[in-house]
Amino acid sequence: MSLRIFIILLVVCALTLTAFATATTHIWGPSTDVQGFKVMHITSDMYLPTQLDAPNNTAGTRLPPITNLGLTMGVLPFEKMQMEVGFDHKSGFGNVDKYPMYFNAKIGIPEKAFHQFSPAIAVGMFDLGTKADVTDYNTGYGKLAWTLASAGRISVGYFSGNEKLLLDSKGEKDNAGVMAAWERTVFEKGWVCVEYMGTKSAYGTLNLGFAWKFADNVSVLVGYDIMNDKDLAGVEDCITIQTDIDFPIMSPSK
User: Fold this and answer.
1) What is the C-alpha separation between 221 and 228, in angstroms, rounded?
2) What is the dihedral of CA 72, 178, 92, 171, to 10 degrees?
3) Distances in Å between the alpha carbon of 140 and those of 10, 74, 109, 137, 212?
4) How far is CA 203 from CA 36, 118, 166, 232, in A?
5) In 9, 34, 101, 169, which residue has its Cα 20 to 30 A from 59's Cα atom?
6) What's the CA gap between 225 and 227, in Å, rounded?
7) Pairing state between β 205-215 and 176-186
8) Summary mean pLDDT of the chain
9) What pLDDT is recorded for position 33?
10) Biggest distance spanned by C-alpha atoms of the chain
């Protein structure tokens, strides 16, 4: 399917149906949603480069897929303040794969927690790596979200990470930028999203995605990720394939 057809389908879906969907992340970056208390969220992601031999890949090798296996869990039992913590195992980065573990945490307040017009609020950190100036992106962020009735939900925020790792194609730091997203439920079990992350670092992308809920706790997402800096060495646009499973930790029966 060409990118043009994908965008047309995305717009058609958005104009025909109502409501909105939620997820711990959007397509590429974090959302304001937080896992419920004692709910565990398993995600399996694969990022496939659209060009197997990128022209800016100076090593001249085929770009491998990036894989990510993650687990996140809600840890606060409160209605108006929630928190999740989790980790990711990432591979496909060459020598960096020696340090595959990354950690994340988020605190959030749901929409309308205090009055009818109060937004959802989230602050957190992700890509907390284990090797100094190699994997410790240590990216902090804050984000707000509002539901616009049948028009879906919009989110805006800002992030900042390790200036030694988040660089543009010229090797200059570009470690902070805006985050924005629009999302909406379609066909009751479907979800569409357009998301943007600023900077010309490896984070910087325009993302288009569609997800389908096969069960109350199982969904699959397919996205197309367009890099902001086409000259960033070894980085190409990619396709995201993501599977998410949620399950509560049940209390032992008495």
Assistant:
1) 22
2) -140
3) 30, 19, 17, 9, 29
4) 27, 29, 8, 11
5) 101
6) 6
7) unpaired
8) 86
9) 95
10) 62
- Under 8 Å CB-to-CB from 147, ≥6 apart: which residues? 20, 111, 153
The pTM score is 0.84
**Cβ(111)–Cβ(147) under 8 Å?**
yes
CB 132 within 8 A of CB 161: no
- 3: enclosing H helix or E strand: helix 3-16
d(CA 118, CA 112): 5
Count of residues in the chain: 254
As a whole number of Å, the end-to-end CA separation of the chain is: 53
Between CA 69 and CA 60 the distance in angstroms is 28
Element (H, E) at 67: strand 66-74
Q: What is the pLDDT of residues 185-235, one digit of tens each?
A: 999 999 999 999 999 999 999 999 999 999 999 999 999 999 999 888 666
* 173 neighbors 186 (Cβ within 8 angstroms): no
* Dihedral angle, C-alpha 43, 32, 127, 215, nearest 10 °: 0
CB 138 within 8 A of CB 130: no
Residues with pLDDT less than 70, the chain: 1-23, 52-63, 233-235, 250-254
Token look-up 């990510």 returns 68
CA 72/CA 21 separation, integer angstroms: 19
* Cα 152 from Cα 97, distance rounded (Å): 38
